[in-house]
Amino acid sequence: MSGRDLLTDERRLFEELCTTDWLAAGFRRVKKNKGSPGVDGVTIAEFDSRLDEELSQLKAELASWTYKPSPVRRVEIPKPGGRGIRLLGVPRVRDRVVHATLKLLLEPIFEPLFSDHSYGFRPGRSQVQAVEAARKIVAGGKPYVVDLDLSKFFDRIHHDRLIARLGQTIPDQRILRLVGMILRSGIMANGLVTPSTEGAVQGSPLSPLLSNIVLDELDKELERRGLEFCRFADDCNIFVKTPKAAERVMASISGYIEKRLKLVVNREKSQVARSDRVKFLGMTIVGATIAISHKALQSAMATVEELTPRGTHLTLEASIDGINSWYVGWSGYFAMTYYPAQLRKIEAHIRRRLRSRLVDQQKSKRNLFRKLIKRGVPRRQAARAVFSNKARWALSNTFAVTRAYPVGWFVGELGQAIRSNQQLPHWFDVDRWIRLT
Asked: What is the mean pLDDT of residues 396-416?
């Protein structure tokens, strides 16, 4: 039975929540997403080992209204580039089961109501689709962007407005009461519990859906005004034809967000600019094309350096293992760029870092000289490079070293060495690595 069908009887929605079948479906989602324990220290594996007992108890507590969500465990995650920290919350496993089950029941009801211009946290929708939609809008003649940044969005969700918004669609007051209890469950940090008077926990399976319900009101307002936009979670770009129109939209929409939605627009990070000056989901729209943003490229370069540090105890194969596991995912997303040279720039940087590592492994200049000759570099060319007083980074880019370790070496000999290393994880995708190099 779908969530939408459950609306035919306002009592059915909560009653379905209080069944072991739905709670078991919720647990399967929690188990699939993995995650660490909450304040009670119970792991997913431990919960799973006594699943029938746990779900039966949860069902009884929900049905009798003795269920009480516990405070979430506060976790601080550093933001990329040292730009502060992101505060996450980890609910107990049993609470996550309730959150996930609520999402399973509510998502089919709200999904058909959401805007076609919303792409985040929705089944069948992705960042790639959002960026492509933005490209089409810009190519259609609206090159100016109102780039809105909502300050601490998840932490500032207004509880009463969210419950009221839910109540416009969900007639079952028990569901609304339960969501309210979840929102107000509190936060535990350093042994102290802080009440939750606003915000939704980043780390709850239910919060992404709740965030879309909150921001759907913004989507509907933008549609009512006839504006073209793309939104992924709280990252919203509005596209217009002229800079004057962009300034007007920035002022009016910022006022709407703060007065109507009770959220805060970060004036420092929000901007009005041409699309080629705006970063949207790591990409930049340049005319009718898509490019990886300068900031995303810089971040990728920094990641490569972190994965290939100097003085590491890891073998070369193990270092490549780490690079591969990151780069396969990174390049898979950023492959939407219309400029393949951007990917080749990262790949060339990876190879140079590895060549630098190979140079450093030769403990003396004489050893390096012999190694280069052994790899087919003419003696005079090898001597000119090795005995030039260049440091290892400069040496890694000399013709002698690149000739000794060309792209073909990464494809051939090194690739074969990686394949034959039985200690590497079974998921190591050497063919993907070789194709990219």
From this structure: 78
